[in-house]
Amino acid sequence: MAPALLNYFGLGRSATRNEETTPVRALPASWYTSQEMYELERRAIFSRKWLLITHKLRLKEQGDFLRYDIARFDFVLTCDRSGNINAFHNICRHRAYPVVEANKGTAKIFACRYHGWSYGLNGKLAKAPGYQDLDGFDKSQNGLLPIHVHVDTNGFIWVNLDAKEEPEIAWEDDFDTVDKQERFSEFNFDDYEFDHNWEMDGGYNWKILADNFNECYHCKTTHPDVPSLANLESYDVNTKAGHIQHDAGTTSEQRAAGLRIASTYYFPNASMTVTPHFFFVQKFVPSGPTSSSMRYEVFRNKNSSEEDFQLINQMYKRIMSEDKVLCDLAQKNLNAGVFINGEMHPRMEKGPLYFQKVVRDTVTEHHKREKAAKQEIWPARQNLPNNALVSQEDVEFCTGLACSSNNDALVW
């Protein structure tokens, strides 16, 4: 591999250093601005990794559905007639029109308004007008494209877009026992109910949001509310597999005021923070290399007063709004083409350094697989049936054109 590419992927570095006392260079700015890197992340991360989405409290009744989009992947969660939670790509199997156009609601069936194909809440094809007269049309092979679902011990819903029958990465590989943290025993998630959602769009890369969230080095200079929630002298993070557990060092005074918090970041792009009076799911949702949304789903404790709920709810809204300003302005300088990277503190910025390492390891491993295969690998892509020979030839023809025209750029 060429030295320039080694440096681009962060691999051309000195191997010896004291990890406790030596600053560490961050990922380069190009990783936060490059369209090619963004597309690689869509393939290597968002197509393969388990994504924390929401809580089952939002899908209480049969037919309830929620629509989400992450990194241009549009999908639907629904509760079927058996009470099971299912997920599907929001793509009709006929001509790719979205079968759901609302962001939430209740339905007995999903009907595509383009040609009238309809699907049950379990994703099975119910009706394809006119196709009953065709020989060889198999309804069982034309349901909605399924997405893997995992509901953890506390009721949080995760999805994995890998199109294989079993995802290459098991939920336990990255998150085994993360839902059984001892500190969660202080909270009964059944005591909460969904209250509202809100979001902020911005001109920033999703990773700059994650870097910011996973350290409190900036808290003293930016967030006047944080000392009410955390002990800044002892604030720390613990890293393991696909998650970063934040230890706020809650004081006895904070605990007495109902401000104890348990916050966990779940790679790649979500976190959950729970307090006695509310919890929220936060997602950093990319829509391009330099555009993302900060999206929040807020749940309140049914037994909490309006005053107690709003105290913590408004506090976090202020904190997240302050973070948006930081990320907006930092990204502008990354975009300008002057700054490459800086040195990060191995202890005070342990969280973002770990996050960046997981990103680096994930995308470079996937890039090696693509280089060996001499083509892009999209784990979420539909698997064609064995008898779709002409379609497979058409796909390979177009892939061959892409490989030959971009041979130098892709370094096959």
From TrEMBL:
Keyword Iron-sulfur: yes
Enzyme Commission (EC) number: 1.14.15.7
Pathway(s) per entry: Amine and polyamine biosynthesis; betaine biosynthesis via choline pathway; betaine aldehyde from choline (monooxygenase route): step 1/1
Keyword check for Iron: yes
SUPFAM superfamilies assigned to the protein according to its UniProt record, in alphabetical order: Bet v1-like, ISP domain
Enzyme class: oxidoreductase
Top-rank lineage group of the source organism: Eukaryota
Annotated ranges, domain Rieske: 50-159
Cofactor(s) in the UniProt record: Fe cation
Catalyzed reactions: choline + 2 reduced [2Fe-2S]-[ferredoxin] + O2 + 2 H(+) = betaine aldehyde hydrate + 2 oxidized [2Fe-2S]-[ferredoxin] + H2O
Molecular function GO labels: 2 iron, 2 sulfur cluster binding; choline monooxygenase activity; iron ion binding
Alphabetically ordered keywords of this record: 2Fe-2S, Iron, Iron-sulfur, Metal-binding, Oxidoreductase
GO annotation, biological process: glycine betaine biosynthetic process from choline
Protein's job: Catalyzes the first step of the osmoprotectant glycine betaine synthesis.
Membership in a protein family: Belongs to the choline monooxygenase family.
Protein name, UniProt field: Choline monooxygenase, chloroplastic
Protein species of origin: Zopfia rhizophila CBS 207.26
